[in-house]
Design brief:
- It is a single chain.
- The chain folds into two domains: 197 residues, D-Maltodextrin-Binding Protein, domain 2; 92 residues, Periplasmic binding protein-like II (D-Maltodextrin-Binding Protein, domain 2, 3-Layer(aba) Sandwich).
- The protein is 44% helix and 18% strand.
- The relative contact order is 0.17.
Length: 331
């Protein structure tokens, strides 16, 4: 073989070997590393969490290099306690009153966006109870003594001549637990979320009314964050919110109805017909906020309600509850 060819070949092999050694010695950052985000929520799978389940099923979180670690906690107040302690990074489908109370008391939490912009509960009662006024002297299951569901129930009962003391409350944080208490005869009525309300109604129980008819101006749930975590992971949070937004848009596309129903049936174990009713209920009432923002008017209405309950001393500046640089106010 020609000596020049041999020398060129040796030089080429030498450079390749050197490149291999250098590549071995220099650490290479992983491409598209996946960020795990611990997300807390209340109870068990329900229609409120539809966007999370859609995002997981359709790969919207994966496309943003995010892996949600979904943690179910029995009650809303307990979820917020864990968020404040740093055990959770984010909470979703969490009643807004608990993070608001926590922030007012000095917790380093903040709201990133609204999720369900009006309360989607139904007051469901035993077969012999036909109307809200028939709940006088009865036992009603709501989420907690300071839970927003108690406010909803009182809002529903007041126009029918019932005031606190005319009925008794018992508490269960998860809607599935309240449904079981009603079906088991432990309570006379309960505030239930879809699809549990449709399941109970199919068993012969009565729908006495919807919370959205009595408190349409009060937002229900939102995404809250631990501020320390959000400060370290603002890009991750933006990707979480982006996946959430894609999921909500997927929900609202009527062509996806069957697929959206399939997703919730798979995670909740509920009957398809009950989940179909849930989809139509949420879709008709536009419960999921599509803007990704926080309505100033709705936020003020909720703060005023909490002031009226004595939970807040005054409305004050609502921006103290929002995550700077992420949460956006709308008029």
């Amino acid at each position: 073989m020609d000596t020049g060819i041999i020398m060129r070949t040796m030089r080429t092999l030498g450079r390749a070997a050197l490149g291999l050694v250098v590549a071995t010695l220099i650490p290479v950052a992983p491409v598209g590393a996946v960020d795990t985000v611990t997300i807390g929520t209340v109870g068990s799978p329900s229609a409120n969490l539809w966007p999370v389940f859609i995002g997981l099923d359709k790969g919207f979180f994966a496309a943003e290099n995010v892996k949600p670690d979904l943690i179910y906690v029995p009650a809303s107040a307990a979820v917020i306690q864990q968020l404040a302690a740093g055990s959770l990074d984010v909470t979703m489908s969490t009643g807004l009153v608990d993070p608001i109370r926590a922030v007012d008391q000095g917790a380093a939490l903040a709201l990133a966006r609204f999720e369900v912009q009006a309360p989607p509960y139904a007051m469901t009662a035993k077969p012999n109870i036909k109307s809200l006024k028939d709940l006088k002297g009865k036992v009603i299951s709501v989420g907690g003594a300071k839970d927003i569901t108690r406010t909803y129930a009182e809002r529903m009962l007041a126009p029918h001549g019932l005031k606190p003391g005319d009925y008794d409350f018992v508490y269960a944080g998860a809607t599935t637990a309240r449904a079981q208490a009603l079906l088991g005869g432990a309570v006379d009525a309960a505030l239930l979320l879809p699809p549990s309300n449709f399941q109970v109604q199919a068993a012969g129980y009565n729908d006495l009314g919807l919370t959205v008819e009595y408190a349409p101006e009060l937002p229900f749930s939102g995404t809250a964050v631990n501020k320390a975590w959000a400060g370290r992971n603002q890009d991750v949070l933006r990707r979480v919110l982006a996946a959430q937004a894609k999921s909500i848009e997927y929900f609202y596309d009527d062509h996806n109805r069957a697929d959206v129903v399939r997703i919730l049936v798979a995670v909740s174990g509920q009957k398809a017909e009950d989940v179909e009713k849930s989809y139509d209920f949420f879709r008709k009432n536009n419960f999921f906020d599509r803007t990704g923002k926080i309505s100033r008017a709705r936020m003020n209405a909720l703060l005023d309600a909490l002031v009226g309950l004595g939970d807040l001393p005054a409305r004050g500046n609502i921006e103290r509850f929002l995550l700077p640089g992420v949460a956006q106010l709308s008029d």
